[in-house]
Amino acid sequence: MERLKFQKSNPYTLGVELEFQLLDRKNLDLVPRSTDILSSVPEDYQDRLKPEFIQSMLEVTTGICTGVKEVADDLIKSCRLLEELADRNSCLIHAASLHPFAIAEEQRLSEGRRYRKIMEELQMVGRRLITQGLHVHVGLADGETAIRVCDGIRRYLPILLALTTSSPFFEGSDSGLYSYRSKLFASLPRAGMPDALKSWKNYHNLVEILLNARIISGTRDLWWDVRPHPDFGTVEVRICDLPSRFDEILAVTVLIHNLVYHLSRLVFRKTQNLVILNNNKWQATRHGLSGYYVDPYTARRCTFYQSVLELLDMLGPAARDLGNTRYMAPVRRILETGTSSHRQKKLYSDNKTFKEIIEKIREGFWQ
Which spans in 14-67 are helix H? Predict the structure, then answer.
């Protein structure tokens, strides 16, 4: 194999990917309109609006941004354009990580050899994969730093999931979870919480083995909750559900930005127990912010609420260094009012229909 290289990027630059549902304007079910919408995207936005796995969703991406204000400006323009194009095609966009009543088997696969190959391999696992998420890229100077950050950030990934849960319902049923998306995605091969990568050499050797054994065709086939992205020169955090409010999307992006900045300056000598990491992820998946969190270094147990507060305190200096402090307020509001899943569950307990839940959640996106 040609030697895997970590492409140089400017440290702490940002890139964000949002995966939106496309809804029929009348019945609010998922509707396969991505091809129609993409055919009318202006040329200067064709690298911002992209197809995704199924035709009833679309991805909005930013360019390479120097900070969160640039991320916000970029996303606002692209999301407003997508809303306009969706409206022309009699549909709406919706920010959540699972549609509450759409039937997975009825969704149409998007065109493209990669998607067909994935579906051929995954079969029913792939047909049930109608999830949406938030992915955040942070640029780093070299591969060793990227591996160190990937290993270190695993400790905090369940906290990020607990702060973003937005997928409590699936195919008309209450899953009993706060992030059913996480369990659907975990059914994929090479998905979930990665083991410690330890060094760029170890990562390179692993990728080489997987390529030579034809287990993967490229590093994009490693669907971990966090991964190095050698082609972009970034660390990509992938564990999050998609928040249903724009300011919460920005706040979580900033939290990840601060975390990567903080961790890139540390050297880790202790190992993190994967059993504890995965149990923390389960607690976030099942109970959201009401779950408990166990520190993988000290075995101290606390609530996710407490772990978030401690994380905010720890990242205060990083936020100041990066100019991110003013964007952090929505994180504390999430602790007070809950995530999208909390709001959806409350509406459901108040006997609201799934359509009424969608309408109410959509109202809050730009608020």
Answer: 34-38
Q: Mean pLDDT over residues 31-35, rounded?
A: 98
Mean pLDDT of 24-52: 97
> Structure tokens of 31?
């509707």
Q: Residue for token digits 């079969």?
A: 123
CA distance 156 to 307: 9
Q: Around 298, how many Cα atoms within 13 Å sit in the side-chain half-sphere?
A: 5
CA 140 to the chain's CA centroid: 19
Strands 169-170 and 91-94: unpaired
Tokens 């039937």: give the residue.
103
* Residue 323 Ramachandran class (φ > 0 left, ψ -120 to 50 alpha, else beta): left
* Sign of the alpha-carbon torsion through 59, 65, 69, 74: negative
pLDDT digits (tens, 9 = 90+) for 130-171: 999 999 999 999 999 999 999 999 999 999 999 999 999 999
297 phi and psi angles, rounded to 5 deg: -95, -45
Q: Give the DSSP letter string of 333-361.
A: HHHHH--HHHHHHHHHHTT--HHHHHHHH
Task: Provide the CA 13 distance to its chain's centre, in angstroms.
Answer: 18
pLDDT beyond 90 at 107: yes
Each residue of 49-73: b (16+ CB within 10 Å) or e? Answer: bbbbbbbbbbbbbbebbebbeebbe
DSSP 145-165: HHHHHHHHHGGGHHHHHHHH-
> Distance between CA atoms of 272 and 90, rounded to whole angstroms?
49
DSSP string for residues in 185-252 = HHTSTTEESPPP--SHHHHHHHHHHHHHTTS-SSGGG-EESEEEETTTTEEEE------SSHHHHHHH
Instruction: Render pLDDT for 224-281 as a digit per residue (tens, 0 to 9).
Output: 999 999 999 999 999 999 999 999 999 999 999 999 999 999 987 788 999 999 999 9
Task: Please return the burial class of 160, using the count of CB atoms within 10 Å of its CB with bins 0-12, 13-18 and 19+.
Answer: buried
Domains of the chain, each with CATH number or no CATH: 14-363 (3.30.590.20)
pLDDT digits (tens, 9 = 90+) for 286-319: 999 999 999 999 999 999 999 999 999 999 999 9
Pick from 59, 16, 51: nearest CA to 250: 16
